[in-house]
Amino acid sequence: MTNLALQSYIDLAQKRSIQALKYAIPLALLLAAIFYLFPSIDLTASAWFYDHQLRIHQLANALSQPETDLSINTGFPLATSRFLIFVYAAVDVLSRAALIISMLLCVFFAIRKNARFLPALIVTLSLIAGPILAVNGGLKEHWGRARPRDVVEFGGTQQFTPAWVISDQCTHNCSFVTGHGAAAFAVTIGFFVSRRKAWLAGGLLFGGLIGLTRMMNGAHFLSDVTFSFFVVFIAAALVAFIVSKVWPVKQGVLNTSANK
After folding, report:
1. Cβ atoms within 10 A of the Cβ of 135, count?
2. What is the dihedral of CA 42, 47, 52, 55, to 10 degrees?
3. Where is the Phosphatidic acid phosphatase type 2/haloperoxidase domain (predicted)?
4. Ramachandran angles phi, psi of 158, nearest 5°
């Protein structure tokens, strides 16, 4: 690997990760306090996409027609939107493809001893640490927050709980935080391996739009989308910081051993 090129990636990852942690953590804590103290923010935002009369009509039909499907809360009219269903599936495919490609690039650059192995490694580990482990394997499975379409306020049967409050209203694949939003916000990982800050702006925009689609169909609250970004971004910052600190030490040990 070219030492100069490798060092530039290390320096960039260290600089960007420190910047990210310096600003993202305090902002995340501030927003967490706001959503906790004013939980009605979530309910108000979700109410923009909810039609109470449609839900009442659906429940009334269920009384006279027992075969009525109540698994989809039609109080959120866009829950059956073909476009949103397509977007949902597309994000799934794209996120899986991104992980596979980043892993293949890791192997390719490692075999060729190319300095770009380092950014490829940071991207791969960040995708695993953030969207896969922290979001889908951690928060969504253990926080227990019911989705908007399932809470009493929107014609469901479960209790609403504020963000960051552990609940028992959901047992699997729960609302906090959004997995698809996390997959979209993963674009911001590019901020730690590229000098183009457009990765951050583009990732925020893409993640925000995907998060909006999840709110529109009653799947997630505003806070689910908001903290999905912070979980992914902070996880990526930690990965970039650790890798950029450990790699030079590892290289030094290898070089010392080779010179003996």
Report:
1. 27
2. -70
3. 120-240
4. -95, 160
Domain boundaries, the chain: 3-66+74-252
Q: Are 119 and 16 in contact (CB under 8 A)?
A: no
- Give the position of tokens 């916000």: 185
d(CA 38, CA 45): 12
Do 151 and 159 meet the contact criterion of CB atoms below 8 Å apart?
A: yes
Average pLDDT score over the chain = 92
**Model pTM above 0.85:** yes
Q: Given phi > 0 = left and psi -120 to 50 = alpha, else beta, which region is 190? A: alpha
Beta-carbon contacts of residue 55 (< 8 Å; ≥ 6 apart): 73, 74, 75, 154, 155
Nearest in space to 235 (alpha carbons), one of 243, 224, 246: 243
Instruction: Kindly state the tokens that stand for 149.
Output: 């379409």
Q: Are 79 and 58 in contact (CB under 8 A)?
A: no
Average pLDDT, stretch 124-146?
A: 97
Three-state secondary structure call for residue 199 = helix
At 71-110, the pLDDT tens digits run 677 789 999 899 999 999 999 999 999 999 999 999 999 9
Cα dihedral 145, 148, 150, 151, rounded to 10, equals: 80
- Closest CA relative to residue 39, chosen from 165, 175, 172, 178: 165
User: Does residue 28 sit in helix, strand or coil?
Assistant: helix
